[in-house]
Amino acid sequence: MKRLISLLLFLFFFYAYSQVSDKTESIIKPLEKFDSFYALDDEKVKDVEKALYKKASSDELVILAGKGKNLYIKATAIKVLALKGDQRLLDIFKDHFYSQENIVYRTSCLSHEQLISSYIFETVSSEDKKENGFSTKDKKNLEREMASLVLNAKPVNKELLEALSYALPENQDTYTKIRKQVIDTRSAELLATLAKYKNPNDIELIKSFGLSAYSAIEKFPDPKFLPFIKENIKDSLDFHVMFALSKFCSEEAKEIVIKAIALDKKQSEKNDCGNGCLSTIYQHIYMERCKLYYPLLADLWLTDKIISFDILDDYEKKHTQKETAKFLLDGFLLPGEAEVIAVNRFDMDDHVMDNASSDMTFDSGLRLVKLLERTKKISREAYEKGLRNSLPYMDPLRFPRFISQLKDHASVLQNKDVLLNQLKINENPYELFFLIKGIKMLKDKNLFTEGAAIVVSRKAEFKKVPVWEKEYSSFIKENNIKE
Prior knowledge:
Elements: H1 2-18, H2 22-28, E1 37-38, H3 42-55, H4 58-67, H5 71-83, H6 89-95, E2 102-106, E3 111-115, H7 116-125, H8 136-152, H9 158-163, H10 172-185, H11 188-195, H12 203-207, H13 214-219, H14 226-231, H15 239-245, H16 251-271, H17 274-285, H18 294-304, E4 306-308, H19 309-318, H20 321-332, E5 339-341, H21 350-355, H22 359-362, H23 364-378, H24 380-390, H25 399-406, H26 409-412, H27 416-425, H28 432-441, H29 445-457, H30 459-462, H31 466-478
Parallel strand pairs: 1-2, 4-5
Antiparallel strand pairs: 2-3
Helix pairs in contact: 2-3, 3-5, 4-5, 5-7, 6-7, 10-11, 15-17, 16-17, 18-19, 18-20, 20-24, 23-24, 23-25, 25-28, 27-29, 28-29
């Protein structure tokens, strides 16, 4: 009997797939060996989509969406059906409802998986007219039907429910069903969905999730959670905790923030992660612009040499020019490289996201230049001392660009001793070429001659690595230096 059923299934599959024309099969041929949607193959996939849209019938696409030879043929057919506005995608969604097939998206270093059922829903829901041909009415109807299936399925498809929880209608029926699933499955993802309803009766349930509770607390920042966060202050090293804590703005919350900063600084010392760790928690704290926390963050410039332009703006408004000059200078005189934050990377405002792609985001040297320029407007003395104390801690690879961005050769040349000393003590011989390049840009012949002599005195070190030796030879030749 089992053999008969298997034979019938095989014949059905063969019959179904045989309804796809040779022309359509040739179009999808490039996708047959796919094991992921790889970023570098994006144009190839788009070409297949365009060809299917023009040459394949909707009936053929339905067959491919259900019986394609691999997941990526199915997904491509689904996308083209959405572009055609074919409502049979609801039936395809039902057919794949309990499927555990995952579409893999891959770049050269990252990968991400998505259930094919979730993919179908998101394809139908797309607002991009280049990917979606449904009318607004049809799209809403399909979304409503699919969401209802997810919410009312028996048995529940927990993974799909978690993936599409954002799309569920917010009403009492949804709340009741989600709450039951939270209790039954202990799903942290569904807990965050439940928290959107901000029901005080759920506070104890949320706290019972321990470290997994904070994404829900972020959605439901009730003051009754603060004792829980304080009691578990060790959790503050997890960024989910700081996201949640940033949603509060009160004296009680401020005390917890102080403890979180202290704990983070202590942990940073152990892990030797420097200002990088502290800059993360720094940006979490002022993400929601709670002014109660600003003085705490300003103090970090005086203790850990980290500052954001937002916090500096606020400090300058509340203090005299003399006080601000002292504040900036005291920070600059600390040992180590200044950590300057131009854009809060956790801020989702449109204007901030637009700025996030600017040079300021990725160029620490440029951020330092902007801070020094701000300092110069406030106090020439603080600027010159701040510049002098910044030079020894600067990344040599960024030094030439720093010189070109600062556009103040005269002030840099006041620190010839610092520049020459960097050439003498730098442990990486290759970095000397960047230092001497920056020095040459200052157009001081005597300084360059002295610097070049130091480079020549370290000639033996360049012979250790062929690339270094080649760079040294080029340096000597290009600058007509006599060894």
